[in-house]
Write a structure and sequence with these properties.
The protein has helices spanning about 1-5, 25-35, 125-140, 145-160, 165-180; strands spanning about 15-20, 45, 60-65, 70, 90-95, 100-110, 110-120, 190, 195-200, 205. It is an alpha+beta fold. The longest helix has 17 residues, at about 165-180.
Length: about 220
């Protein structure tokens, strides 16, 4: 596929070759030699599960909040989308922000979050919030966890400050929902100032040792 596309492109085209977790040296060698024989200018090889943070995953396993692997909940598996009924229970959480009240609606199936709606008082960021909610709902319906979504929102906030406000509001809402359901949210990262461990408090990463905060 890459060779066919690149044939009509003057620029280099790099495509990641996704391999299963049990791929060995022979498979990697074959991928590179085939790319060379077809005249590709460059490829990248990735083996499933090679990194602790992986956006997409195939199989019956999920990543826990601490980055480790664990079996999907009973009746759920990656690739099997949970169908939602027309009427579901939900938790509605109000989060106060500098721009007004933000409202987060989390739909529950058997007591577990499976759908997200956000209605923040942040008109300029409405499309961003809508996209996060739609993609987040898909992750939950595929067997993912709220912790996974919160972890990714925190990373986006850390790298792209221009979308900071609505993402922090969503994270605060997520945390309050999980606390109300009696579940602990464990999202951590190293503090850039003192290198101690920061924890998510009220939807924001904070260091209790030196006081550094990403809010």
């Amino acid at each position: 596929m890459q060779a066919a596309f690149q044939e009509y492109s003057d620029s280099a085209v790099s495509k990641t070759i996704n391999l299963p977790s049990d791929a060995g040296v022979e498979e990697v060698t074959k991928a590179y030699l085939l790319a060379y024989e077809l005249g590709c200018k460059g490829i990248t090889v990735y083996r499933d599960g090679a990194r602790p943070d992986q956006v997409m995953n195939v199989g019956s396993f999920r990543r826990n909040g601490d980055g480790s692997h664990g079996p999907a909940p009973e009746g759920l598996a990656w690739g099997k989308l949970v169908e939602l009924a027309d009427i579901v229970d939900e938790k509605r959480i109000r989060v106060k922000t500098a721009d007004g009240n933000a409202y987060l609606h989390v739909g529950l199936v058997d007591g577990q979050p499976r759908e997200i709606f956000g209605n923040p008082a942040l008109g300029a960021y409405q499309s961003t919030v809508a996209l996060v909610c739609r993609l987040g709902s898909t992750v939950l319906r595929l067997g993912g966890t709220v912790e996974m979504i919160m972890d990714q929102l925190n990373k986006v906030h850390r790298e792209y400050g221009d979308v900071r406000i609505p993402l922090l509001a969503l994270n605060r809402g997520f945390q309050r929902v999980m606390e109300d359901l009696g579940q602990h949210v464990s999202i951590t990262e190293s503090c850039p100032e003192c290198r101690r461990q920061m924890r998510m408090v009220e939807g924001c990463m904070k260091c209790h040792d030196c006081g550094f905060s990403r809010c």
